[in-house]
Amino acid sequence: MTGTPPGTADVAIIGAGVVGAAIARTLARYDLRIVVVDGANDVGTGTTKANTAILHTGFDAVPGSLESRLLRRGSSLLHDYAARAGIPVERTGALLVAWTSEQRQALPGIEEKARQNGYTRVGPVSAAGLYQREPHLGPGALAALEIPDESIVCPWTTPLAYATEAIRAGVRFQLNSLVTAVHGEAGWHTLTTTGGTVRSRWLINAAGLGADRIDAMLDGGGRFTVRPRRGELIVFDKMARPLLGSILLPVPAARTKGVLVAPTVYGNLLLGPTAQDVEDRADTGTTAAGLAALLDAGQSILPDLAGEQVTATYAGLRAATEHGDYQIRVEPALRYACVGGIRSTGLSASLGIAEYVTDQLAGAGLALAERGGTDPGPPVMPYLGEAGTRPYQDARRIAADPGYGRIVCHCERVTYGEIRDALASTLPPADTGGLRRRTRAMNGRCQGFYCAATVSSLMAAARPADGAA
Amino acid sequence: MNVDVLIAGAGPAGLAAAIELRRLGVGRVLVVDREAEPGGVPRHSAHTGYGLRDLRRVMTGPGYARHYARAAAAAGAQIRAGTTVTGWLAPRLATLTSAAGVETVTAAAVLLATGCRERPRAARLVPGDRPPGVMTTGELQQRVYLLGERLPGRALVVGAEHVSFSAMVTLAHAGADVVALVTDQSRQQSYAAFALAAAARWRVPVWTSTAVRRVAGRGRLDGAELADLRTGQTRFVPCDTLVFTGDWIPDHELARLAGTGIDPGTRGPAVDTTAETSVPYVFAAGNLVHAAETADIAALGGRHAARHIAAALRGGRPPRAPLLPVTVTAPLSWISPNAITVPGPPPARGRFLLRSEAFRRLARLEVRQDGRVLATARARLVPGRPVHLGAGWMARATPSAGPVCVVLR
Known about the structure:
CATH topology of the largest domain in chain A: FAD/NAD(P)-binding domain
Helix content of chain A: 25-40%
CATH class of the largest domain in chain A: Alpha Beta
Strand content of chain B: 25-35%
Number of strands of chain A: 22
Distance between the termini of chain A: 26 Å
Number of helices of chain A: 12
Largest interface: A-B, 44 and 41 residues
Largest sheet of chain B: 7 strands, mixed
Number of domains of chain A: 3
Shape of chain B: globular
CATH architecture of the largest domain in chain A: 3-Layer(bba) Sandwich
Oligomer: heterodimer
Shape of chain A: globular
Number of strands of chain B: 27
């Protein structure tokens, strides 16, 4: 768009989570000056990073809801994008396991719901078939539904890939900038942030857990209230991975999908989440009661888990609201889009949400002129999954660059070359947490016993360059 | 590449085994270690007291590590640091990764000497926030002794065994003000002299019957919530560094990948008194099979394993007798080695090593098989400290009478 004064943007996106980054990446192909503002020091540090890392089909969404539609679309787009960008995805399939006769009676209804959601590849599995497929499953399972396209995905690489693509197309990420006020006058939104003022013509609110507060700054709010729901999760050691082939889903209860056990693309098993409504929007602490409840549930689902070590525990907050559906609306008069209430399905739906919001903005008058030149397509991200070849396994790559043969993090087999690359990447990590999400370094069973000191020194050595960037 | 013996781990056990194998005339001995330098954990343990039982002298950790690395090289073993055994294509066919590339090694025998690590906070399921500043002794020592980091501010040490006092010294060296050592046991578990010296020199108290209930701090560590296990009362103790010490677990992943049976007590590969695992010609020694003993005990275990590996490689070995498991019951937590053959040779140093989870001043151990008492022994039990049991009873075990169990009477 022409005529935007220096230091201002055509579009400001509040929130650098997976949804904000996806919108930035989708809008980046148009001739717009875009800035993404976030209070954190990295992309994807909120709900995005602390979830169950499942790429949902949306089979169990509310039929006819916006969430159902965008999940289906987003899931399909992300499968395609992930393959091109090197985002680890494994189509493990899921088994929705009934443990009581009541749950078993619910299965046909869930199957019907899946069909209403446009997902037809769902089918019943007998108890015998279930134990044949998952021989480590605890006793007492009565029947299951199979959802063969439920997949696992890397929740860290996904927003990083979107952001990397966006930055390379000219989008500016203004991190460490928590929005404290929004004022509108004379056709401009003025955002007061802890990292300086941002002015833009259009504003997109993808603030996740803070979306209702931003909404209130725009037009008084009151349309929805974020009610953070904390989910605690336990990550088991990679030695536990052979215990499970598919994602094991519980039959949904009223509030959540319940406790599931799922493989991760890093080769671990994940158990969770709990569901507890909390007041504090930053309370991502785990609790003794939550962890105990998970271990208890895990032991009946997969008894052999009890003999395996826990690698990590964490908690995430889902941006639940009082409504059952996404809270997405565009207000042409305010040149404003609210993308709130994305709950726990934002990762799977992100590209569908971005596409939908883009269409809505176009309808509301945002001028979307395609940029000239060829679309470079998605960036190729460092591959963090276990299903493909990692650098330490790649003889040709090590021959070309011995740094990929120097394993620094032994538990996760992360090489010096990968850490070096991450520190020099388009969007380098701001702290060791960021490095963990880009490389897996220090995420393993020893949690830094062997490598934390070395990794920290590599980070420290890269810092000066960081500061200059 | 083909070798006679592939040793995974160039710590005290692996290097001592390499030296002994070469002394016994074994030709090609390859020791690989994933760290950048050989020597193992003693490399970053600056205190003295190393080498007592194996070398009959007293050295610092780094000096001890250097000694073994040089001696193994001088003995003709090939030592390759910065080299990881990434897996097995067959029981004794290993895949390696190093800066030199990806390669495979076929070995007539394998010795697993991958050591142990401390269980970190996550594995101990300590809830709360996840700020930086929470670490294990291993990480602490590397930060302080290998990288020269300073750690000003208040520090809390979780644990009160030998390694906990070692962490306290390291913290003091790094400029931290150590508030206390915290243990859920009713007493500290190190030698009284250590604890007295700590109290006198650094004025650091040991808070017994106290557990860490929660870690608090967003972005940076604020402190820990501690609970008094006698009264149930909790209190918040501010600190800038929180070190989880001890609670050792073998680095058993390579062993599991090799298909060895795992002992439920030690959580390392189950081994007989020759240090052989359930997989023929795959041996295991050091803190992989007894996490954690001092370095000299690990080295002597490696030397012992080497003798049996050399004997096995000489050929003409008769078919292996069936393994009889040796188990323990609570409050004993493990015994190593944890299998015997009848007849069979004595274990390293002629004794079995045990651990207890409870204090007992005058415990009476009983070795039983199928209801029959094979031996009794007196022992003092302190959690985290070694308990020794002689091997004379092995001759009285019956091959067909099932597992042997060591119980507390």
